[in-house]
């Protein structure tokens, strides 16, 4: 019998055993393969090559309104893993104040594979190093002090079974890359310009994504040119002006001040580490004017080749397309099924009806929590970047973060960026260095005055979103157009 058939039999038998012992619900995730590889090249030398391969089983049992979780990497240990999960749930059930309920769902089956041509884990190390060397060469100049390349690959094959009869299988492939060039400006301050690998509309997620020059390596010349312009540029002066975010910066803005505060577990007061609170509460939904009428934010967003697209979440729920913010009004959140009953019980009414397909776990030995999937600002009616510049009297265009500081409830923020282009009376006038801007989240989004069209929309990748204790580093995507905000405090007061 194959390992899959053997395991399936053991899992099915144990799920029935848990139900027979009074479990309300049981689910199992088997990571048949969880492989990753990271390469770091510094000034043309391979500084790091970390690989990992894991495999194992994670079991959740809901009993007496409380969760129990256990995991094992030994497939011979399946029975005792279920017993430990049940025993944890029984202990927790004596302590919980709100009794959880998964509701009832009909079982379903499905599978999902990330679109890819060449599995990046299978590409030889020498081919990877040769490719990175060629990118490094294109970044080399005698005035550049540091060149950094970092690439990361993932391959996961995950099976899921639940006591409702659901079975899903997903094969996920991810490819991430960053290039950064650093040089000293006239004040002896280090300046940087970087480029992150982005998703191609309708494209794939394999090795071929990395080697497509349009998505990453072909930007080396621009990175160098812009770094040189930064070195000779004057500093941005403190003041209130319009700020236009390119997607390289806009995606972080969305991540920190829309994505994280809309995770339901944070809204309920869990995950308070890592600036983990939220200014949003259960009464905010359907009422809070989060932003101007131009702000439309979706979760998932039908992006086939983003790291936030995985077919089925860690509860087997199919990912779906839905709005979080509709014409500026907050309408929904990022949630698993597991959190909905607690939220509705605490609110004393039905605030949420359906899982957002946002239950995610970083490995077989971590219990799933509410995560971002693809949190996107939808394209708007205000044309191209050029069109938006034309209607700007006094502003700056900024790209890529250098620093970020965020309020513990995500109510305010302060970001530094790599580069700014000054805009006066509808035209770009010069490059400025050390740009920064800050704001109060709701006030800032209510000052959203222009949203670029589809041609400005880029799906940016995030591979290192941290959340949870123990920490779970997660990958996701943000589709973001060019966005303009008015009356923004920018630059630093001297
Ligand atoms: Zn994050």
Main beta sheet: 7 strands, mixed
Low-confidence stretches: none
Share of residues in helices: 10-25%
Strand content: 35-45%
Which structural class do you get from the secondary structure elements? alpha+beta
Average pLDDT, rounded to a whole number, is: 96
Number of helices: 10
What's the total count of β strands?
A: 22
Rg, nearest Å: 24 Å
Apparent shape? globular
What does this structure look like?
The protein is an alpha+beta fold and 494 residues long. The chain has two domains: 3-231, PmbA/TldD superfamily (PmbA/TldD fold), CATH 3.30.2290.10; 239-490, no CATH class. The protein is built from ten helices and 22 strands. Strands 1, 2, 3, 4, 5, 6 and 7 form a seven-stranded mixed beta sheet that branches. A hairpin with a 5-residue loop joins strand 15 and strand 16. 48% of the residues are buried. Residues 255, 260, 465 line the site of zinc ion (ZN).
């Amino acid at each position: 019998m194959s390992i899959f058939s053997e395991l399936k039999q053991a899992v099915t038998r144990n799920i029935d055993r848990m139900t027979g012992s009074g479990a309300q619900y049981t689910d199992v995730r088997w990571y048949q393969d969880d492989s990753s590889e990271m390469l770091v090249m510094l000034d043309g030398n391979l500084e790091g090559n970390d690989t990992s391969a894991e495999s194992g089983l994670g079991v959740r049992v809901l009993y007496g309104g409380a969760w129990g979780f256990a995991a094992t990497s030994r497939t011979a240990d399946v029975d005792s893993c279920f017993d430990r999960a049940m025993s944890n749930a029984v202990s927790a059930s004596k302590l919980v104040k709100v009794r959880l309920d998964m509701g009832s769902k009909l079982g379903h089956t499905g599978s999902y594979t990330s679109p890819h041509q060449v599995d990046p884990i299978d590409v030889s190390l020498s081919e990877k190093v040769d490719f990175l060397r060629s990118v490094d060469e294109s970044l080399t100049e005698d005035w550049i002090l540091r060149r950094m390349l970092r690439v990361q690959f993932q391959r996961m094959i995950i099976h899921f079974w639940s006591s409702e009869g659901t079975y899903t299988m997903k094969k996920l492939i991810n490819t991430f890359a960053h290039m950064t060039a650093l040089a000293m400006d006239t004040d002896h301050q280090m300046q940087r310009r970087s480029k992150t690998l982005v998703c191609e509309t309708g494209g794939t997620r394999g090795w071929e994504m990395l080697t497509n020059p349009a998505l990453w390596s072909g930007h080396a010349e621009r990175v160098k040119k812009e770094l040189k312009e930064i070195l000779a540029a004057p500093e941005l002066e403190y003041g209130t002006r319009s700020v236009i975010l390119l997607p390289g910066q806009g995606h972080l803005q969305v991540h920190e001040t829309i994505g994280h505060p809309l995770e339901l577990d944070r809204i309920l007061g869990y995950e308070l580490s890592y600036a983990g609170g939220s200014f949003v509460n259960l009464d905010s939904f359907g009422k809070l004017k989060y932003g101007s009428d131009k702000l439309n934010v979706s979760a998932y967003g039908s992006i086939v080749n983003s790291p936030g697209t995985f077919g089925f979440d860690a509860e087997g729920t199919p990912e779906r397309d839905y709005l979080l913010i509709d014409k500026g009004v907050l309408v929904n959140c990022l949630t698993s099924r597991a959190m909905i009953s607690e939220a509705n019980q605490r609110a004393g009414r039905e605030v949420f009806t359906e899982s957002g397909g946002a239950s995610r776990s970083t490995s077989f030995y971590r219990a799933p929590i509410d995560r971002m999937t693809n949190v996107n600002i939808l394209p708007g009616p205000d044309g191209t970047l050029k069109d938006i510049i034309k209607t700007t009297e006094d502003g700056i265009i900024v790209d890529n973060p250098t620093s970020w500081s965020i309020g513990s409830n995500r109510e305010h923020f302060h970001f530094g960026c790599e580069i700014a282009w000054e805009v006066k009376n509808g035209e770009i006038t010069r490059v400025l260095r050390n740009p920064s801007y800050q704001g109060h989240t709701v006030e800032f989004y209510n000052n959203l005055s222009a949203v670029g069209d589809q041609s400005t929309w880029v799906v940016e990748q995030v591979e290192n979103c941290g959340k949870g204790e123990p920490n779970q580093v997660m990958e996701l995507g943000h589709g973001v157009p060019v966005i303009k905000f008015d009356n923004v405090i920018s630059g630093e007061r001297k």
